[in-house]
Specification:
With 385 residues, the protein is an alpha+beta fold. The protein folds into two domains: 35-178, no CATH class; 190-378. 52% of the residues lie in helices and 22% in strands. The protein is built from eleven helices and eleven strands. A nine-stranded mixed beta sheet has the order 8-7-1-2-5-4-3-6-9. It has a two-stranded antiparallel ribbon with strand order 10-11. The two termini are 40 Å apart.
């Protein structure tokens, strides 16, 4: 019986299998991040707030498009107000000590934000008054989407608390007198790591730039680099340029100095992936990957900023959130590079890398990104991620 190991060296086969498995995982989990935004205000013994929920998320648990025409209207949302209020009350609970506060929805609105249309629930939490310590339990959509996140802003006595809820951390406790800045810093840092790992377009852009790092452009086309040092320096330039660029625009957008329409940003991010991938097949900017990383990194920064833009943080809290989130993005990016570079360098001379990974992989990245670009420009959906 003929073994596959006769055709592939054992190490190469194992590495290729691991890469294929990793790609399958990324494909299975990659889509635009799903978030909802909870804003709470404590005044005296009362607690009020509003909850912004994306209609496309809400439609998964409460069918809103009753006439199945692909368009959710205000009338359809309003007709489902009792069901929406019931779902909200059962998936967002606040406790003071042993007392659970009862949610009373006072108003239901529909508003357009930078990343889509949201149902806005205004509510009051009624009970026996607020204690110094409150506990918030958020469990919306986790059973349908493990990547969903609940972003919360809590205002009390002129101080702002912020938090991010996830399936691993659905219940959190808050001291209304003393917000913990380091806790917020860590939470947003963790979210930055998570955001880069589930951002399929960001990952593919980075990979498209990294793929040529173990090769060099010669007179006969792409050739392998002789040593690890040239590849490392090339990667360092790319990562540094991308980091500086997206940090600039992430800061400007989050501080509301410069804002761009969400659809324009997302479509341009997809276009950047297409160009980076095509540059590997027919070089337009040979040996200038760092320049491509910087120019398009500016656009990717606006995409990262969408996570923080609608949270309404104060200047002091915003600074911590911005630094923590940006640091998390860099750590997530660094983890990808640490895994990619040694594998790519060890496989650089094999057909697995030169033909399958580099050329065919770049072509597939370009096709996927071109599809995303068309979807984002035309506002339709073809791919499931």
């Amino acid at each position: 019986m003929i073994s596959l190991f006769q055709f592939f060296p054992r190490t190469t086969f194992r590495v290729f299998s691991c890469l294929a498995f990793a790609c399958a995982i990324v494909s299975a989990h990659a889509h635009k991040a799903s978030d909802s935004y909870v804003s709470l205000r404590a005044e005296g013994s009362t607690l009020t707030g509003h909850w912004d929920i994306a209609l496309h998320d809400l439609d998964q648990v409460i069918p809103l498009d009753t006439n199945a025409d692909g368009n959710i209207t205000w009338g359809e949302v309003r007709s489902r107000q009792p069901e929406i209020a019931k779902y909200a009350a059962s998936h967002l609970q606040v406790r003071t000590g042993d007392t659970a506060l009862q949610m009373k929805v006072t108003e239901l609105l529909v508003e357009d934000f930078s990343d889509g249309t949201y149902a806005v629930l205004r509510f009051a939490l009624e009970g026996s008054g607020l204690a110094r310590i409150i506990q918030v339990d958020y469990r919306a959509f986790f059973d349908l989407d493990a990547q969903h996140r609940g972003l919360m802003r809590l205002e009390s006595g002129g101080k702002i608390h912020s938090a991010i809820f996830s399936p691993e951390k659905p219940c959190q406790q808050f001291d209304l007198t003393t917000p913990s800045p380091w806790r917020q810093f860590i939470d947003f840092g963790r979210e930055g790591v998570w955001h880069i790992w589930i951002g399929f377009d960001h990952i593919l852009f980075l990979l498209a730039l990294l793929l040529p790092s173990v090769l060099r452009r010669g007179s006969n086309g792409w050739e392998v680099v002789d040593g690890f040092r040239p590849a490392f320096i090339k990667v360092l330039k790319i990562v540094t340029a991308f980091t500086i660029a997206h940090s600039i625009t992430l800061s400007l957008a989050t501080l509301d100095v410069v804002r761009l329409p969400s659809r324009l940003v997302e479509a341009t991010i997809a276009a950047s992936v297409v160009l980076a991938a095509l540059n590997n097949i027919r070089p337009i900017f040979p040996e200038r990957g760092w320049m491509v990383a910087f120019v398009f990194g500016l656009i990717h920064g606006f995409g990262f900023a969408n996570v923080l833009a609608d949270l309404g943080l104060t200047n002091q809290t915003l600074a911590l959130a911005l630094v923590g989130f940006n640091l998390g993005v860099e750590l997530g990016q660094l983890a990808i590079v640490v895994v990619f570079l040694p594998l790519a360098f060890s496989l650089r001379s094999s057909w697995v890398y030169q033909k399958l990974t580099f050329r065919f992989g770049s072509a597939m990245i370009a096709v996927l990104a071109a599809t995303w670009m068309a979807e984002r420009i035309g506002d339709f959906k073809v791919l499931p991620f």
